[in-house]
């Protein structure tokens, strides 16, 4: 497969020297020791910028600022906080063309996907501000005459927020929307691959009126930053989106300090296709869903089970459609799938394919890196895949699809549930009984019935099992950032 050749210039318009500084106490600053690290365009492997590494002192100053920021921001009336977040959402929408370019250059996804991500981020921010206005405690009658009880909802405190590189804007926005809506302050750590996107998000929020000290951002060595932030007594809540192994590590560290966590972790979503569907149309539409963001999506459809009576037709159309996908630089107008975001994902794809093939899988299309510049991997479809293949139990997070035939409905349900993850699951059938059964019995936090839905602001999304705990979005969006206080009056 050839890479579609259109390339964007690596210089990011409007970002002076593409140097990403830390944001501490309302000021953009270099790391105290002057250490920087390169940001790479995954489509070209060009260096497109550098980000500053925070030292331990820098992190300490960020936390100190956030402590004061908590006082300042929580004192702003919720109604006004809602106005500010609404303004931020509007500003983000206004700036989306420029920010989308930055996102595509550092993450690789097609520009249209970047724009869509920013629109969704704006919705989450607006939603967080609106929900903040609706936070209310309650009054309870006391047991004795003259006694009354208040239940107050108060911000949990300073939050350490760790954001991933696959959707750096919307997944950071979900956290900021919830915590700022609730009146908390934070120290955010974006992923090393995608600092520029989060820098732009912070600028938007600050320009809209969020006090700079409520919204601190540090960059640098992930483990150094998380170790220090989690241990800091001023940090009262941890929120993380990323892989299950890292989530388990951070949650166990937070547990030592008795700090609550929200963990939005990996997934391995089954897709079950019954025999009563429009086979060709569905296969084509699932290609677009599967290769969205090059498969680097926690809720990506990943383990395909297709009823054996339609299996051959489904595979044929799916493979043909996967072959037709235009893979290339995300800035190319025709590009439908960009590169993987980093070399680690590329290497992981090679290992997963090799393992599956060694266990009997047949490569129907794809299976290898494209070219030797840029982290491109072919859209890959595998058949005859053993349930023992590593990719049937380990999150794929890339453009590989195993498609397996099934015959027995109970057996496919058992296999679908037989992984440690429990994030999402999708099935396709017109049969109402099956719809009820599979919606009830799939052990995941999100279900698509004849659908692979996107996460939208008004809906809570969270995983079960190794996919984490807590949710983001929905009327629950602020729950993670509020605590209850029982006040009894006599
Ligand atoms: O990668 C996990 C998050 C996907 C949900 C989203 O795109 O908002």
From TrEMBL:
Tell me where in this chain the Aldehyde dehydrogenase domain is found.
28-487
Give GO terms: molecular function aspect only.
oxidoreductase activity, acting on the aldehyde or oxo group of donors, NAD or NADP as acceptor
**Mind listing the UniProt keywords for this protein, alphabetically?**
Oxidoreductase
In terms of domain of life, where is this protein from?
Answer: Bacteria
- InterPro entries, per the entry: Ald_DH/histidinol_DH, Ald_DH_C, Ald_DH_N, Aldehyde_DH_dom, Aldehyde_DH_Superfamily
Pfam families xref list? Aldedh
Question: What family is this protein classified in?
Answer: Belongs to the aldehyde dehydrogenase family.
Q: Protein name, please?
A: Succinate-semialdehyde dehydrogenase/glutarate-semialdehyde dehydrogenase
Organism listed in the record = Marinomonas pollencensis
């Amino acid at each position: 497969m050839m890479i579609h050749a259109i390339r964007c210039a690596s210089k990011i318009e409007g970002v002076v020297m593409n140097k990403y500084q830390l944001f501490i106490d309302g000021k953009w600053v270099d790391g105290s020791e002057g250490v920087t690290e390169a940001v790479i365009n995954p489509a070209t492997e060009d260096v497109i910028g550098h980000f500053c590494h925070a030292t331990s002192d820098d992190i300490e100053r960020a936390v100190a600022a956030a402590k004061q920021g908590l006082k300042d921001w929580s004192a702003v009336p919720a109604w006004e906080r809602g106005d500010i977040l609404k303004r931020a959402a509007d500003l983000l929408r206004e700036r989306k063309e420029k920010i989308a370019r930055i996102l595509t250059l550092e993450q690789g996804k097609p520009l249209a996907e970047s724009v869509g991500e920013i629109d969704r981020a704006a919705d989450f921010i607006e939603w967080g501000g609106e929900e903040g206005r609706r936070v209310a405690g309650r009054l309870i009658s006391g047991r004795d005459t003259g006694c009354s009880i208040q239940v107050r909802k108060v911000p949990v405190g300073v939050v350490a927020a760790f954001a991933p590189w696959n959707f750096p804007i919307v997944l950071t926005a979900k956290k900021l929307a919830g915590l700022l809506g609730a009146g908390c302050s934070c120290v955010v750590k974006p992923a090393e691959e995608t600092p520029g996107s989060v820098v732009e998000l912070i600028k938007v929020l600050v320009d809209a009126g969020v006090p700079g000290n409520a919204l601190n951002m540090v960059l640098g060595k992930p483990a150094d930053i998380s170790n220090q932030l989690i241990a800091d007594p001023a940090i009262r809540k941890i929120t993380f989106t990323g892989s299950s192994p890292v989530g388990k590590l951070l949650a166990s560290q937070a547990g030592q300090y008795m700090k609550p966590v929200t963990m939005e972790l990996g997934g391995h979503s089954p897709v079950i296709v019954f025999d009563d569907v429009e086979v060709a149309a569905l296969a084509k539409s699932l290609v677009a869903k599967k290769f969205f963001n090059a498969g680097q999506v926690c809720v990506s459809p990943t383990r395909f089970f297709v009823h054996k009576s339609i299996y051959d037709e489904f595979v044929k159309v799916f493979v043909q459609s996967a072959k037709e996908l235009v893979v290339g630089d995300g800035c190319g107008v025709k590009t439908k799938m960009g590169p993987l975001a980093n070399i680690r994902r590329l290497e992981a794809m090679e290992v997963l394919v090799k393992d599956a093939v060694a266990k009997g899988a047949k490569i129907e299309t794809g299976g290898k890196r494209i070219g030797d510049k840029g982290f491109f991997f072919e859209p890959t479809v595998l058949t005859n895949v053993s349930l023992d293949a590593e990719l049937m139990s380990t999150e794929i997070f890339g453009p590989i699809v195993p498609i397996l035939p099934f015959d027995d409905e109970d057996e496919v349900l058992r296999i679908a549930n037989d992984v440690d993850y429990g994030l999402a699951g999708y099935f396709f059938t017109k049969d109402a009984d099956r719809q009820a059964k599979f919606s009830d019995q799939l052990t995941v936090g999100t279900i698509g019935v004849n659908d692979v839905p996107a996460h939208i602001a008004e809906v809570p999304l969270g995983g079960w099992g190794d996919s984490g705990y807590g949710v983001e979005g929905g009327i629950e969006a602020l729950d993670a950032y509020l605590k209850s206080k029982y006040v009894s009056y006599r």
